[in-house]
């Protein structure tokens, strides 16, 4: 199989590409425009493979996408390319509409034309989305595949729009699409603007660790390799036209995540920054994000019962691996702006 991955130099995308090259016999076509969050170094282990091709292209350019499809003739698309940081979407929503909505439209149109010209009965289009499209939960309840859409940020609104486009192109043009909605991802190679890597890097540099509001916002945390395994399970066994929630079964408040990281670093680092005995001294509560959702929680029962998938990592085991990776790969982080 030849799999075209959009956004394959990003955090989740590069984990997926590494898995495809290192653990399968599939060929991979990686399309990524290399924004600030994309890093080709994430794929150093793949670059010499004769099963790997990279195109530095923007999915907002439909003609360039068409050229890639014509040249590579993929059997599957896994669509991960997206602007994804909520804070940036508040500052510059247009970039999110361009990539997440127009870029998805272009990819759907090029896929539609590709399928009209090629007889590929086993073709699959996997659209990777987020639980944020469902809005905010109260203290109880879980997001299911049938939850009502209620996006509350420019980012989640743009992803909700892309979900609706994908569903419409399946219903109208019979494109064999499957959508996944995942919870918060974490793990190696995540750009350090996100909560977990930001906490790690600020702590070891002796900088204040910002926590929005009271820090009691709840998120379900999914280790990135578990997410990749879930995507691969959906690619191989998911039903066309269906939606699958991929979650980690790991609800945590933001403040508990930060304090757990600080405790891990207390044990791992003997030579702490000057004046710091315990890293949680660096925690600093800051003004809450505009429209900050209170709680996300995924019901991944459908993945477990229908596709026999569940995450391998607990939050503690995944966080242990993540903290250790950042401590062992400080050179990767040093040139990142955060």
UniProtKB/TrEMBL annotation:
A Pfam family of this chain: GDP_Man_Dehyd
Q: Which InterPro entries match?
A: dTDP_Gluc_deHydtase, NAD(P)-bd_dom, NAD(P)-bd_dom_sf
* Catalytic activities: dTDP-alpha-D-glucose = dTDP-4-dehydro-6-deoxy-alpha-D-glucose + H2O
Where do the NAD(P)-binding domain residues begin and end? 4-321
What Enzyme Commission number does this protein have?
Answer: 4.2.1.46
Keyword annotations from UniProtKB, A to Z: Lyase, NAD
| Alphabetical GO biological process terms | nucleotide-sugar metabolic process
Task: Name what cofactor the protein needs.
Answer: NAD(+)
EC primary class: lyase
Parts of the chain that traverse the membrane: none
SUPFAM superfamilies xrefs: NAD(P)-binding Rossmann-fold domains
What are the protein's GO molecular function terms?
A: dTDP-glucose 4,6-dehydratase activity
Looking at the record's lineage, which domain of life comes first? Answer: Bacteria
The UniProt entry's sequence similarity note says: Belongs to the NAD(P)-dependent epimerase/dehydratase family. dTDP-glucose dehydratase subfamily.
What protein name does the entry list?
Answer: dTDP-glucose 4,6-dehydratase
From what organism does this protein derive? Answer: Zooshikella ganghwensis
